[in-house]
Every structure is written in C-alpha cells, then in structure tokens.
Amino acid sequence: MRKSGIVVLCGRPNTGKSTLLNCILKEKIAPVTSKPQTTRKNLKGIYNDERGQIVFIDSPGIHKPIHKLGEKMVKYALNILKEGDVLLWVVDGSVSPTDEDVLVSQNIKDINKPKILAINKRDLFEDRENEVLKDYGSLGEFKRVIPISAIRGDNVDSLIEVLFSFLPEGEPLYPEDILTDSMEIDVVSELIREKILIHTKEEVPHSVAVIVEEFKERENGKVYIRANIYVERDSQKKILIGYKGNMLKVIGTEARLEIEKFLGKPVYLELWVKVYKNWRKKEEALKYLGFK
Question: What string of DSSP letters covers 272-284?
C-alpha cells in the first residue's frame, strides 16, 4: 500500500527550509535568499514517487516578532505545525544552536507528532559532524537526526525515505501531476520578491510587499503580469527604482526569467513601485496586502 501525508517544515528563519523544499521537488517554488524571513506565507510542495505522496508545507521562520507583520508570520507558522503528520525541523548546523532554535524547540515539544531533525549545511560542518549532531540532538526528542546539505543534496534521499516511514498508508491527497497547490500568482509574487531581497539591502528588503494585480494569458500565448511593489517610504521607492530605473529593470528581468521557467510560457512582466507608509505595522494594510 502506498503512503500519503503532510510534512511541515519548521525552524527559525534562514536555516534553508525553502532550499531543501526546492531540492526535494527539483523545481523552484519557494523563494531563496541569504536574508532571514524570506518565506512569509505557507507554501505547499507536492512530492510523488512509487512509495506514495508527501505534501510539504514550507512555513515562515519562528522568531520573536517586532511588528504586526512578524506577529502574523509567527502565528501562521505555529498554527500550521498542527496540520502535519510529521514535523521536519530544519536547523543550520554551521552555527551553534541559537536562542531562536531554543524558542522553536519550546514551541514544538508538546506537539504529539513524529519529529525529524534535519541538520542542514553539512557541507560546512563535515569535520565536526558528531559534535553538531550532539548539540542539536539535545534540543528535543526526535525519531531521527539526519545531517543534510540542501545545496549539495547530501542525505536528502535518506531523509525522504525516513519521512515516508512515518506517514500513514493512503491515497494521494493531490493529483500526482501537480507540484504545488499554491496559486500561480502567489508563487509569481514570491519570485519577484526574492529578486528584490537579493538586490537590495538594509531596511529595504523587509519593507517590501508584492501584489500581482493582473495575470492574463493573451492570444499570442504570452502571459501578461502586472505587479505592484509596495514599500514604506519614498526613500525606499527611489532605491528600488534605481538610477534611471536600472535597479527595477534588473529585478524585473531576473524575475521574468524565473517566472517563465515556472510557468513554462513566455512572460511580459510589468512592475510598479508604490508607497504604503508603515504597512507592516497596520492591521488594515496587512489585510489589503494578503496577510490575513
């Protein structure tokens, strides 16, 4: 009998959860950058093979919030923990356990689900693997502790095998020919935001929200996408547009290429930058921008 179930990826920000999901699916559906809190919404990725189906939920990183947006992100993450058949806690083994790792352990310890600990970035701690496994393994009770590298693919196949072993028998939850149940416009907005995070710094990356206002396939087969990029201050808008529009052009070009790869179709991408002052601190702004 084939198996089917839900695996929730959890952890503090910037441990490689999204990189691992993309590695498993062999397709990019989740944004990946070196900046913390890249993932803001719960993205689902669907993995199928002869053993069955795993529905992965990539949740925002668990952290101490400093504004209303952060509060909503943490609330999303904690609520989603209860939906899975298995919890997959992804940590960054290249550094010692942090206060935020301890916070994660406190939030998951009473959840009565099998817990698997994936210690990521093995490529950076191979020479002290036993020490790292001991340090992180002491943070809780785990069915398995597995060192992995989402970048290189180390032990990812073994991790999938372990996850299947703890899933219930059953029919697939989703059709086997789909990779994600997230709406295309949600994935598109996240891919645009990823490029903004890569090319900007300081306060700009985390002050950005992306809303796809128009998504339409035209008669010539090209997909027309119009998206608004919201920032909190006029100064951030100037940075994002750049000198003679160069920054926005780079972001748009790179995002369009990623979107074309995801959709498998040619894309015309139109980006607009708008100011919504202090949107991260306003409840009505968060609702308008999709953080309900």
Answer: EEEE-TTGGG-HH
**What DSSP state is assigned to residue 210?**
E
Written as tens digits, the pLDDT of the chain (292 aa) is 899 999 999 888 889 888 899 899 888 776 554 444 444 456 788 999 999 999 998 876 665 555 566 666 666 667 777 888 999 999 999 999 999 999 899 988 888 999 999 999 999 999 999 999 999 999 999 999 999 999 999 999 999 999 999 999 999 998 887 777 667 888 898 899 889 989 988 778 788 999 999 999 888 889 999 999 999 999 999 999 999 999 999 999 999 999 999 899 999 999 999 999 988 888 787 777 776 6
Domain 3-165 fold is Rossmann fold (3.40.50)
Contact status, residue 114 vs residue 74, Cβ threshold 8 Å: no
Closest CA to 80 of 40, 46, 47, 119: 40
Domain ranges in the chain are: 3-165, 184-288
Strands across the sheet containing 267-275 = 209-217, 223-231, 267-275
* 3-state SS, residue 265: coil
Q: Which CATH number fits domain 184-288: 3.40.640.10, 3.90.226.10, 3.30.230.80, 3.30.300.20?
A: 3.30.300.20
